[in-house]
Amino acid sequence: MSRSGTARRVAVLAGAVTATALFLAYVPAHRGWFDVGVYHGAVSSWLRDGGALYDYVRPGTHYGFTYPPFAALVLSPLALLAWHPAVAASVLVNAGAAALVLHWLLAPVARRAGWRRWYAFGLAGCAFAVLEPVRDTVSFGQVNLVLLALVLADWRALGRVSKPLAGVGIGLAAAIKLTPAVFIGYLLVSRQWRAAAAATGTALGATLLAMAVAPGTSRVFWTEALWDTGRVGDLAYVSNQSLRGVLARIGPDLPATLWLVAVLAVLALWAGRVRRATAVGDRFGGFALTGVLGCLISPVTWVHHLVWLIPALARLADAARCAEPRGRRRALLAAAGASYLILCSSLVWLWWNGAHGIVGFLGANAYVWLALALLAGLPLGDRAGRALGDRTGRALGDRTGLPRGGLAGAQAGQVQQGQPVAVHAQPADHPGRHG
Question: Domain segments of the chain: what residues?
Answer without folding.
Answer: 29-227, 233-429
